[in-house]
Automatic annotation (TrEMBL):
Swiss-Prot/TrEMBL keywords: Aminotransferase, Pyridoxal phosphate, Transferase
Family according to the record: Belongs to the class-III pyridoxal-phosphate-dependent aminotransferase family.
Known cofactor(s): pyridoxal 5'-phosphate
Claim: Ribosomal protein is one of the keywords in the record: no
Protein name per Swiss-Prot or TrEMBL: Aspartate aminotransferase family protein
GO MF: transaminase activity
CDD domains recorded: OAT_like (cd00610)
Species of the source: Vibrio zhugei
InterPro entries, sorted: Aminotrans_3 (IPR005814), Aminotrans_3_PPA_site (IPR049704), PyrdxlP-dep_Trfase (IPR015424), PyrdxlP-dep_Trfase_major (IPR015421), PyrdxlP-dep_Trfase_small (IPR015422)
Amino acid sequence: MVVRSTIMDTNSFRPEHASELDEATRQLTAKRERLLGESYRLFYRRPVHLVKGLGQYLWDANGDKYLDVYNNVASIGHCHPAVIAAVNEQMQSLNTHTRYLHERILSYSEELLETMPSEINKAMYMCTGSEANDLAMRIAHAYSGGTGIIVSQEAYHGTSALTSGASPALGSGQPLSPNTGLLASPDHYRLAGQDVGVWLADRMQEKIDEMTTNGIQFAGFMADSIFSSDGVLPGNAGFLKPAIDVVHKNGGIFIADEVQPGFARTGEAFWGFARHGVIPDVVTSGKPMGNGIPVSGLFAKQEVLAAFSDQIPYFNTFGGNPVAMAAAQAVLNVIKEEGLQAHSAQVGQQLLNELKGLQEKYDCVGDVRGAGLFIGFELVSDKESKTPNKALALDLIEKLRERKVLTSVAGPHGNVLKLRPPLAFQAHDIDWLVGALDDALHMIL
């Protein structure tokens, strides 16, 4: 199989790995191949058959326990009892759409909007991040009158026709929209010594000017503020602001895709964009909102949303349904009651410090960077050249899997371990993760 997508194909099972599998796993992979569409991918050369989850842990069909260091779907932890209880209670009374009155969607919106800048005062709901980003792009078109959307060079924003056309991480098999402009990623590791904020703002203006030259009117910039698909590039707090100023100066809007950095993940703030001192025009979110229950949201400045909503009705059958809102409310309550933002900052810093010890120990660990419980662990050929070492990263992923630690890779070269555990991850889990990394690196090298 030709590797074409950094987020789908890099760390995936391939048919040539089948001979290495035990009989039960081989039968399951063969059944998947027979029944499911070929676009699907499984993680790992030896796929993991999971049957149970609790907090930051998962169990496979053999009863083996794993440490989950990748999952932000179950953002507050697998099978959190508060979410289970809220969903069960609401399912027993009513589940319908948003064309009937219901209190849950209103109370949740009111409470969530309080976590936003006051300028962002309108909410809309869908089921997936792709749907939220799709609507955000339509709003950008309506507000600006243009169609040009700028994203980072390895961005992933969804699977709809609009969003996949603005998701270069999906690879060469998925053509980009002719109205999509690719912005160079703010790779602080390789831009050491430069003012990355000024550098990125200059690249933004160049890309907008290029669009204008090609007859494309600029509509907006959509970004995940930690640039996770680009290799987890948090950078210094505030570096993004000059680029957003350029966006607004040129009549575009900033869409903050918070599916990955939002909901207390970065520790420094509830939302990833907030660490940069910017106010987005539109904020989108998805999977962390419902801890596994499909729900997503779009939050916008009233005057920006009005350009779309005053002209076009919007309806999403399951978006904002009472059960989804019950799950979302439970997640928000848990984040507040369990102090998960402060927890993410504290435990994330402890983990970062321990991982930096491995950076000092091994010449192949080029950089360790992160914000809260979102860390990039970059593998290189050597520290001087900073040459990405994809082969080592993929071998390391497999060795971690053998040590019952689950994670994956990111970045254009597939050489950055993306360490993003559920927020239930505790300080006592650090030894398991760092010890497994240390042992695996020692064995490979």
